[in-house]
């Protein structure tokens, strides 16, 4: 381009910018709709999605995953069966892939999960262990995995699903062999291995005030009193239209905040009996908005993660036959009423 033409182009660009017309990449960024993450950030919150390794070969999927969210949770890749498939043999392939992808997109990682009764490797479940043996196995697993991801993840779901619906301890291999103290031990071991990671207990059906969330409240208070390194409680929020909305969610989040704990909605989806109808999708949208409003109303509710973002990759149909349509985007990757309800609840005026 000649000097004159350059000057003309620059002047034209200046006029267009003054008129609010997009001229380049920066202006395009201004023009486009803010993402859920950007809207959440205006409230000092994050907005995340879970993902899973097999889906990462789908470019349309990964494009939105990388742009709409600021936090990522590996749906399976950091679980015990994946990370320690044989005793003492660690495999970071799946977790690392997600951590690298998140880093490329400037996203934080909510790491999930260290101690759970489900998705354990056979070598662990197919024999019996004495308490000292199992304690050593647990300690080694936690410390090796947390050390591997040290400085690379924002938080860890240290213990997952420790309680029954009535608030009694779930009779897992951990509880039966080690007693309830395994929870404090796990938190301490994780903290030693990465003092910078926020450490969570995480569970489902604890969104409302009730026996199961009461059990967490009591345990959290005890752990805090004993100076056990616990930073937050994760409310999975796998909701289902047929069971009703947890109306005491905000009050429940608030009581944990008062214990000086962070809270987060960690695995949100709102499933329904199929087929999805306009009425059900509208009801679902209201639930997504309401749970967002509840989190925004509670100072220490730090963010929301949906359990993947599109119905195409939701875990629901495989686990709850006849149910589905649980996420804010449909299986064609098109936004549903729930997506627009989320935007509105986060304060965006369309
Ligand atoms: C689910 C995964 O999404 C599925 O792919 C897998 O088959 C089973 O586990 N609570 C949790 C998550 O804490 O780890 C579960 O994830 C969903 C329920």
Kindly summarize this structure in a few lines.
Helices cover 44% and strands 16% of the residues. It has 350 residues and is α/β, with parallel strands linked by helices. The protein has a single domain, classed as Glycosidases (TIM Barrel), CATH 3.20.20.
Write a concise keyword list for the protein shown above.
alpha/beta, TIM Barrel, binds (3S,4R)-3-hydroxy-2-oxopiperidin-4-yl beta-D-xylopyranoside, disordered N terminus, 10 strands, 350 residues
End-to-end separation: 40 Å
| Secondary-structure content class | alpha/beta
- Which geometry do the CA atoms define? globular
CATH-level-4 superfamily name: Glycosidases
Specify the biggest β-sheet. 8 strands, parallel, barrel
Q: Which regions have little confidence, pLDDT < 50, spanning 5+ residues?
A: 1-27
Q: What is the CATH topology assignment?
A: TIM Barrel
The count of domains is 1
Strand count: 10
The helix/strand series, from N terminus to C terminus, equals HHHEHEHHEHHEHHEHEEHEHEHEH
CATH architecture: Alpha-Beta Barrel
Written overview of the protein:
The structure is a single chain. With 350 residues, this protein is an alpha/beta fold. The chain has one domain (33-268, 297-324): Glycosidases (TIM Barrel, Alpha-Beta Barrel), CATH 3.20.20. The protein contains 15 helices and ten strands. An eight-stranded parallel β-barrel has the order 1-2-3-4-5-6-8-9, surrounded by five helices. Residues 1-27 have low confidence and may be disordered. The site of (3S,4R)-3-hydroxy-2-oxopiperidin-4-yl beta-D-xylopyranoside has 7 residues, from loops.
């Amino acid at each position: 381009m000649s000097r004159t033409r350059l000057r003309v182009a620059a002047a034209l660009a200046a006029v267009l910018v003054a008129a609010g017309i997009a001229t380049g990449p920066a202006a395009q960024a201004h023009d486009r709709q803010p993402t859920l993450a950007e809207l959440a950030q205006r409230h000092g919150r994050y907005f995340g999605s879970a993902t899973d390794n097999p889906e990462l070969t789908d470019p349309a999927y990964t494009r939105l995953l990388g742009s709409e969210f600021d936090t990522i949770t590996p749906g399976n890749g950091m679980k015990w069966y994946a990370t320690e498939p044989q005793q003492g043999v660690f495999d970071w392939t799946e977790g690392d892939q997600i951590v690298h992808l998140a880093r490329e997109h400037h996203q934080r990682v909510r790491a999930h999960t260290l101690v759970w009764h489900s998705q354990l490797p056979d070598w662990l479940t197919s024999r019996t262990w004495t308490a000292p043996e199992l304690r050593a196995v647990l300690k080694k697993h936690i410390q090796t995995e947390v050390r591997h991801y040290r400085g690379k993840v924002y938080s860890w779901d240290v213990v997952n699903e420790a309680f029954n619906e009535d608030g009694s301890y779930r009779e897992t291999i951990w509880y039966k062999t080690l007693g309830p103290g395994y929870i404090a031990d796990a938190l301490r071991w994780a903290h030693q291995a990465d003092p910078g990671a926020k450490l969570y207990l995480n569970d489902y059906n604890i969104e409302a005030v009730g026996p199961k969330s009461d059990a967490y409240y009591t345990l959290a208070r005890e752990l805090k009193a004993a100076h056990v390194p616990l930073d937050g409680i994760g409310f999975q929020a796998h909701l289902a239209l047929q069971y009703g909305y947890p109306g005491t969610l905000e009050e429940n989040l608030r009581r944990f905040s008062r214990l000086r704990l962070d809270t987060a909605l960690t695995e949100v989806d709102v499933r329904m009996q199929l087929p999805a109808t306009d009425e059900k999708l509208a009801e679902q949208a209201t639930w997504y908005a309401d749970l967002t409003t509840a989190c925004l109303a509670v100072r220490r509710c730090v963010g929301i993660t949906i359990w993947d973002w599109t119905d195409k990759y939701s875990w629901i149909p495989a686990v709850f036959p006849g149910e589905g349509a649980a996420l804010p985007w449909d299986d064609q990757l098109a936004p549903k009423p729930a997506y627009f309800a989320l935007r509105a609840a986060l304060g965006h005026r369309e």
